[in-house]
């Protein structure tokens, strides 16, 4: 059996049946199965995940009982086969069909003939398979074509024009660049670029953050440069949070939702390892990741502690020069990295997110010194979690003023979708 397709299948089943995060499941299965081409596996896995609703729409037209009637194993093998036939020009048609049948013999016992028939039916009928009528139902058309839950399409159509939304949907299905933040505590930009290029990587400088580099090449996290703490993987939008916070040497900074620690480390590097960063998270096990990352990067000014960010720590009131609230959110800005987010249903928990975000922001604001900075950020594109949370907070806290608010968008900025709002506390004690 082809190890590449086996790895892709097992990853997709982990996401489908165990609700695993795609990046974690993929890395786990690559380690376990050692495929010959990690690039092929990643392309197939993310291609299927990014186009899941569209692929199921085609299955609905090819299978009389529809995609939902099939077992997860059958549906996954069919999605893989259809994606190879429809979107992977490097894969010959016979290979896509035959390898899918081989997978079916192993994981869909007794269904290999059915899988073979459906895929061959697709080859015969693919030119006649149609998308929903756009004029009749634009939300359904966009939802199926780009594979997003309808409520996300509706949410964005409330904010932006249709053409703009369609560009956002396309960008969410694009492959993001591999971006790193070099650690200026250990290296200079020119030196890290030279070392990466010596190892065969193509490197370009970022646009938004001075320490950002876009790197092309495989096995980046297996290099000694990474293991020795010369760089971290992080999107430029996330790096920009540290830049907008603008921490100074010797200050006291609080990062109240810190895990897994990417922004915490970027802040520490900007402070040249001087001053104090108190990095909190509700789960101690997640803070272990922060401690481990600090150790890898040679950072010593980060103190981790377990704390529920919705509660006020009376011992820290008025003690911080700057406070970062990188709030838990719906994650609609990072679907190009975690395509499974596109299929989340609207739940009561999701509807309550803005209330939780406002509670965290309100509690955290009490830690800011007079004249200090409060920064709120999310990795989502949702006014209910972003602009409206800020509006509600400022209504109730007249001692804070908004200095800057940014909504980064993948198709405009080439980054993840991030919201960043910088607020300044009045220097008056009254």
Structure description:
There is one protein chain. This protein is α/β, with parallel strands linked by helices. The protein folds into four domains: 126 residues, N-utilizing Substance Protein B Homolog, Chain A, CATH 1.10.940; 35 residues, no CATH class; 55 residues, Alpha-Beta Plaits (2-Layer Sandwich); 190 residues, Rossmann fold (3-Layer(aba) Sandwich). It contains 19 helices and eleven strands. It has a seven-stranded mixed β-sheet, sandwiched between helices. Strands 2-3-1-4 form a four-stranded antiparallel β-sheet, covered by helices on one side. α6 packs antiparallel against α7. The longest helix is centred in the first third of the chain and has 16 residues. The radius of gyration is 24 Å and the shape is globular. The relative contact order is 0.08.
Walk me through the topology.
Blueprint: H1 3-18, H2 22-33, H3 38-50, H4 52-62, H5 72-87, H6 93-107, H7 112-125, H8 138-146, H9 150-159, H10 162-172, E1 179-182, H11 189-198, E2 202-205, E3 212-216, H12 224-227, E4 231-233, H13 236-245, E5 252-255, H14 262-270, E6 276-281, H15 284-297, E7 302-306, E8 320-326, H16 348-351, H17 353-365, E9 368-378, H18 387-396, E10 400-408, H19 410-413, E11 418-425
Helix pairs in contact: 1-2, 1-3, 1-5, 3-5, 4-5, 5-6, 5-7, 6-7, 8-9, 13-14, 17-18
């Amino acid at each position: 059996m082809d190890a590449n397709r086996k790895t892709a299948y097992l990853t997709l089943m982990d996401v489908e049946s165990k609700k695993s995060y795609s990046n974690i499941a993929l890395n786990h299965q690559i380690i376990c199965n050692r495929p010959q081409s990690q690039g092929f596996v990643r392309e197939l896995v993310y291609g299927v995940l990014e186009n899941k609703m569209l692929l199921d729409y085609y299955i609905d037209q090819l299978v009389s009982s529809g995609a939902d009637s099939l077992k997860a194993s059958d549906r996954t093998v069919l999605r893989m086969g259809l994606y190879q036939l429809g979107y992977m020009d490097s894969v010959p048609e016979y290979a896509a069909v035959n390898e899918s049948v081989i997978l079916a013999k192993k994981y869909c016992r007794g269904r290999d003939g059915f899988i073979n028939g459906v895929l061959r039916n697709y080859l015969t009928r693919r030119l006649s398979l149609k998308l929903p009528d756009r004029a009749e139902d634009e939300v359904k058309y966009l939802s199926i074509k780009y594979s997003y839950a309808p409520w996300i399409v509706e949410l964005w159509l409330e904010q932006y024009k249709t053409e703009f939304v369609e560009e956002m949907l396309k960008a969410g299905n694009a492959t993001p660049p591999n971006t790193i933040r070099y650690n200026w505590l250990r290296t200079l930009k020119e030196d890290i670029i030279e070392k990466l290029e010596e190892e065969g990587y193509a490197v370009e400088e970022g646009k938004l953050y001075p320490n950002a580099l876009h790197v092309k090449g495989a096995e980046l996290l297996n290099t000694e440069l990474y293991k020795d703490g010369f760089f971290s993987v992080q999107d430029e939008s996330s790096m920009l949070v540290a830049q907008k916070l603008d921490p100074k040497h010797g200050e006291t900074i609080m990062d109240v939702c810190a895990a897994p620690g990417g922004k915490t480390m970027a802040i520490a590097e900007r402070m040249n390892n001087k001053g104090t960063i108190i990095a909190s998270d509700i789960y101690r096990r997640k803070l272990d990741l922060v401690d481990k990352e600090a150790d890898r990067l040679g950072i010593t000014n980060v103190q981790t502690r377990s704390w529920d960010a919705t509660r006020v720590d009376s011992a820290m009131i008025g003690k911080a020069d700057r406070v970062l609230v990188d709030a838990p959110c719906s994650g609609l800005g990072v679907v190009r990295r975690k395509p499974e987010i596109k299929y989340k249903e609207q739940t009561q928990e999701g509807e309550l997110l803005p209330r939780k975000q406002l509670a965290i922001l309100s509690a955290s604001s009490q830690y800011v010194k007079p004249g200090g900075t409060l920064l709120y950020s999310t990795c989502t594109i949702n006014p209910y979690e972003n602009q409206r949370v800020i509006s509600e907070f400022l209504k109730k806290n007249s001692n804070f003023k908004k200095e800057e608010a940014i909504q980064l968008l993948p198709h405009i900025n080439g980054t993840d979708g991030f919201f960043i709002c910088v607020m300044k506390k009045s220097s008056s004690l009254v």
